[in-house]
Amino acid sequence: MDNMVFKALSDPNRRQILKLLSDAPLSAGEISREFDLALSTLSGHFKLLKEAGLIREEKKGNHIFYNLNTSVMEEALNLMMEIFKKDKPQLHTIKQKGQ
After folding, report:
1. Which SUPFAM superfamilies did the record assign (predicted)?
2. What are the sequence ranges of the domains in the chain?
3. CA nearest neighbour of 66 among 74, 54, 51
4. Running DSSP on this structure, what letter comes out for residue 1?
5. pTM score, two decimals?
6. CA nearest to 54, candidates 40, 42, 70, 41
7. Contact, 69 vs 53, CB < 8 A?
8. pLDDT (tens digit per residue) in 6-51
């Protein structure tokens, strides 16, 4: 998994975009109504989310619709669950063994 996914998820505005898209695909205009941000700023967020593979875009006429790429989201969630597994040795145990 690319670190770009975690960079994309680090911003609260991008997380909010993902949350909005979790229900249904939305146009850029529909998403923009939910934010008090310049369109150029939102465009930058869309670009980063696309580069990370978290969203896809589809052009329909004069509109661009965005939808969530659930497979990448599932990969990110699985990785986070793997990182924070409860059965992993505690950090102080690792340090003691490595001393």
Report:
1. Winged helix' DNA-binding domain
2. 3-98
3. 54
4. -
5. 0.77
6. 70
7. yes
8. 899 999 999 999 999 999 999 999 999 999 998 899 999 999 999 9
